[in-house]
UniProtKB/TrEMBL annotation:
One of its GO terms (molecular function) is metal ion binding. CDD domains: DHQS (cd08195). Its EC number is 4.2.3.4. Zn(2+) binds at E177, H241, H257. Binds 1 divalent metal cation per subunit. Can use either Co(2+) or Zn(2+). Pathway: Metabolic intermediate biosynthesis; chorismate biosynthesis; chorismate from D-erythrose 4-phosphate and phosphoenolpyruvate: step 2/7. Residues 174-318 form the 3-dehydroquinate synthase C-terminal domain. The gene is aroB. Belongs to the sugar phosphate cyclases superfamily. Dehydroquinate synthase family. Catalyzes the conversion of 3-deoxy-D-arabino-heptulosonate 7-phosphate (DAHP) to dehydroquinate (DHQ). Gene3D superfamilies: 3.40.50.1970, Dehydroquinate synthase-like - alpha domain. It comes from Victivallis lenta. This is 3-dehydroquinate synthase. One of its GO terms (biological process) is aromatic amino acid family biosynthetic process. It is found in: Cytoplasm.
Amino acid sequence: MMERIQVGLGDRAYEIVIGPGARALAADLTGRRNFLVTDSRVAELWGSWAAKEIPQAGSFVFPAGERHKTPETVVSICRRAAELRFDRKARFVALGGGVVGDMTGFAAAIYMRGAGFVQIPTTLLAMVDSSVGGKTGVDIPEGKNLIGAFHQPEQVLIDPDFLATLPPGELRCGLAEILKTGVIFDEALFAELERDPDSLTVAPDYARFVPLIRRSCELKAQVVAADEREAGIRALLNYGHTFGHAVELLSDFSIGHGEGVAVGMCCAGELAARLGLWTRKEAERQKRAIAALGLPVALPRHCTVPAMLEAMRRDKKNRDGAIALVLPRRIGAAEVNRDVADAEIGAALEAVHA
């Protein structure tokens, strides 16, 4: 049974459709010329299905991987659209994970000053995070997602049947984002991930993922409707990300986004405990939950304190040179803090090193 969640943004409101078979709704994308964008990995798995089931007037496939999430790839997407003579009424269709969705959305935002797009996420991480909310963008050597735009999709089709093709590491990365949402907004969601973690990772019971995806999307839809451009409550969704993005950058993206966020949550949890914002017991509870899902809980040795601080200073959420950190107050609540001294951050980082 399909579930529908509304993202309330006035005349730009859209639906998130969740459920087995949701991808079949792509066949209803008619009335406009569709431009399918995907990566080489997804094309190998789902290209034949997409060719048959998604009405399309052209497509673009780029090499898979975060290393290709660049301005150059976005320009290539736009040039292919121009070659195919798509006008601004064209609909870009993103089929893939977060890299595909972010770049397709950004290309749609800038192509002829704005075309529509639809998200069909194929990874758990994209289903619960990047496909909803309209954040689009690319990486540059100086930092992650430093070039981008807010550009909301017209529709998001989330089909858990895609999950069966994911390697275990990809599932774990998505679970990190769900756990993050639980820490900042919903203790019940956090507790659900603590229950029988092996059924989510070792021997996945895909039926368990549907309510987790639904709740994550419900919470994100509420936040986006209240604060589309991250002027307030939406900033809390960056929990673990300031640390995590630095870890990704310093590893040259050999560490996945979800893994970076998991370590980043441990860093934030350690710092919050040192500052007395939450208890050591809560920090340890978070760490146990992360480890039980098979996610890393320690900073790699190459992520030295000076390198981490330098990378964190490049984060786009910073203001006037102050590092913006989302720190937990308890499981289910968090706050943004811009007043933490580098020495305090450094001490927390040292404590989380492998």
